[in-house]
Design goal:
7-stranded mixed sheet
């Protein structure tokens, strides 16, 4: 790339759009580090969501066999034409990935990994959709707000632990692989970020998925209430039934949702199924 990315953006008359959550990374060492920590190899097809000015796309192309980069902002087309010039293993798709027919996409492209500097506003729906419906998605290495990263990787009995933590744990192992200060972005956001690696491991939680998720969401219905009261409210159980389910799982009757590990939620969901 001969020209500096910021120069290319300026020459194209590009203006950052807040509605798309555009905060670009330009530091080549940082980008190379993210790709390396994501474990990208020549055997991989990598999906990037929100490719922006193409800086991460270019770093991915140097290591991956194929990169399919999605971008919703068509005004970036002339910018990407320059920053990705000559890269034969990159395909740019100007489309909202959340609206893509995932089954059709996977039929065409096969197995893939996701590496992306995600627009903050689509973080949760995107991760949830890929883990729920992405049957051929092997892993996600995604840049998110640091607070969200802490939540995704939290352990039980911590303030950060919540429903999203346990739901993600049903399919994937989560770990923070890199922290990125706000000073590394253009324009600079109001928060720091972190890259979370979600490695999909089918069968890691031995429980029916629907029952497991319903139990998790019930447990966090009201964080102030005990688990017994939340279960009674959501599943219409008697106190005796709710307390019996907890006792059979070795869970304290005064416990709250944030004290249960994903494995405990799995055991509890099996107990609750007996009453439904």
């Amino acid at each position: 790339m001969e020209k500096d990315v910021k120069t290319v953006l300026a020459e194209a008359g590009f203006g950052f759009k807040k509605k798309f959550g555009q905060n670009f990374l330009t530091d080549k060492n940082l980008l190379a580090s993210i790709v390396s920590l994501a474990g990208v190899t020549k055997a991989d097809t990598v999906v990037e969501i929100g490719c922006g000015a193409g800086t991460l796309t270019r770093a991915l192309a140097a290591k991956a066999g194929r990169v399919v980069a999605f971008e919703v902002d068509k005004t970036l087309e002339p910018v990407l034409a320059q920053t990705l010039a000559g890269l034969e293993n990159v395909e740019v798709v100007f489309k909202d990935f959340l609206k893509v027919d995932l089954a059709a996409f996977e039929k065409e492209y096969g197995g893939y990994s996701v590496v992306a500097n995600l627009p903050y506003y689509i973080t949760t729906p995107l991760i949830t959709r890929l883990l729920d419906d992405g049957k051929k998605c092997k892993s996600l290495a995604v840049m998110v707000q640091e607070e969200v990263a802490e939540r995704l990787c939290a352990k039980e009995n911590t303030p950060e632990y919540g429903a999203i933590t346990a739901v993600v744990a049903y399919r994937a192992r989560a770990e923070i692989i890199k922290r990125v200060p706000r000073t590394m972005f253009t324009p600079r956001p109001n928060v720091d970020s972190a890259v979370v690696l979600l490695t999909v491991e089918e069968g890691r939680i031995a429980a029916d998925e629907t029952a497991f998720k319903k139990t998790v969401h019930a447990a966090f219905l009201s964080r102030r209430k005990t688990l017994v009261n939340n279960l009674m409210s959501v599943f219409k159980l008697s106190r005796e039934q709710a307390e019996g389910a907890l006792t059979n799982c070795g869970i304290d009757l005064k416990a709250r949702g944030e004290t249960l590990s994903p494995q405990k939620f799995a055991a509890l969901s099996k107990e609750i199924e007996k009453f439904l």
